[in-house]
Fold each of these.
Amino acid sequence: MMPMRKRIPLSARDARYPWLILVPRRAGLSEIHDLKHAERMVLVEEINRASLGLKAITSAVKINVGALGNLVPQFHVHVVARKLGDAAWPGPVWGNGLAVTYERDVKAALVKQLHDKL
Amino acid sequence: MMPMRKRIPLSARDARYPWLILVPRRAGLSEIHDLKHAERMVLVEEINRASLGLKAITSAVKINVGALGNLVPQFHVHVVARKLGDAAWPGPVWGNGLAVTYERDVKAALVKQLHDKL
């Protein structure tokens, strides 16, 4: 089984949407089909937990999940809480305008809430 | 275990990108966390097969996978073959311009190739 790592890297430092990125702890992966069977089983459960966690701590009406990687080749999965009328609604968050920087306290509180849930 | 259905519905009728949409055969699902554990196991393997199949029959440099559902509530997963310089590259395909209709022969050939691979 592959331990997955949840973190909030550059592209998720966007206060417009609560946003997690899951990154498998194995270099050289770029597609879901580069993962082994057991790794995919872990991945989908990690996505599930991230989805439930975001839903629990936000007023999201929809969770968006995406593995694109057109710009960053290392395989990663976005899990994003969407709200009616958010900056990109109902379009995708990727490629939509400029990120808004989190206020430090707001980000710390969100990360703490997520850590408690996950 | 949940049988998954692969089809090319409305939003994937876009000749700009080879594009599959996986729709679980169960009504009332909208989030990945609405699926049961065993259903998620099937889903990720169906995504894997769709990804491998698209990679095999296209010159895709990247497969994009997305479960958005902001407009269509029934849970569904997009699996899209991306090429350098395609109409939306390197952005997401969703919300990008107008779909281009397939010529009937081209679509039939693509569907046949996919059926053979999947």
Amino acid sequence: MKIYQKSITLPPFPRGFHLVTERIVSQFPELSKINTGLLNIFIQHTSASLTINENADPTVRKDFESHMNKMVPENAPYYEHTIEGPDDMPAHIKASLMGASVQVPVTNGRLNLGTWQGIYLCEHRDHVSGRRLVLTVYGS
Amino acid sequence: MKIYQKSITLPPFPRGFHLVTERIVSQFPELSKINTGLLNIFIQHTSASLTINENADPTVRKDFESHMNKMVPENAPYYEHTIEGPDDMPAHIKASLMGASVQVPVTNGRLNLGTWQGIYLCEHRDHVSGRRLVLTVYGS
Amino acid sequence: MKIYQKSITLPPFPRGFHLVTERIVSQFPELSKINTGLLNIFIQHTSASLTINENADPTVRKDFESHMNKMVPENAPYYEHTIEGPDDMPAHIKASLMGASVQVPVTNGRLNLGTWQGIYLCEHRDHVSGRRLVLTVYGS
């Protein structure tokens, strides 16, 4: 069993859901050294998140943003944490609903995703800078 | 540390939430070789998902389906990804809310679940075929 | 690669979202033996859950509770699993939305969380006892 870990920073993305599979894989060549294993991708933020979903039609990512905004609306009357702007508290809730990390099986040095799967960065804030990820791959 | 990985296919299940703990464990005898470790179960699809919840009363699974249909409705006016049918875009959103993988501790060669915990396959589509899982167990 | 696993019990917390990072770390000194790795924290219950979110302002945790109660209300007319009280079925759904486990990178014997990240215990029931966690850390 081997383990490799690396921190990378994704550039700022606009609020919404974005495919970042290739950006991650291309920055982590150690992946190819693992024959059988798992990759953990962890985001070090609480107003952006990671998920795995459809990698083909961009309207899927648009509809994610539309629905998450409906399901976790801005300016709900019960929010008390409002000082950082109307997008802040919804961003925290959306981040926990999606999650701070994803795990992907690694097989023969490559991510063993399904045909239609890709890794999404979910950016929940209006004004952002880059987002730090910690990548950890391990296995034989 | 040892690691074992296997792909299996679950048979088609109707739309809804289904207990699949035994189907998974019975197809992965390598589990018994791990004294202290973790099992990762990964689903290679974007319109079905995995979660861990109550393993006893079937009405819990029915209520999950009812509430997820309310929380992520079909035919929302803002959906643009509609060509594959009214159940398609909600399926993608539900899949990310539940998640593409679960991790379960392994202790003495067995899943160390709580008394009332079981693994659910969450089938979000109306018409489905089998669902592919990648099982990875590792530890000492 | 090394692996350590330990079961601990958190004391009863009132319904709501609670920061428990230090309670977990202080009970798992084996963490310091891992230079590069991951910590998995698993909750052995189906009406409480774990997530990672903002570790500073207590109103964030209050707003989480308010919004989750709105998004997964008690007494929905379609619930059939009602015998254990109005908070029971919502607790199951909230638990799956948040998740039964979190993974955190470990670097130089410490959790490699972002500056503003902490681990939350999400207690979804009104009347609870302690909550059992299984901690598993592994790496080099």
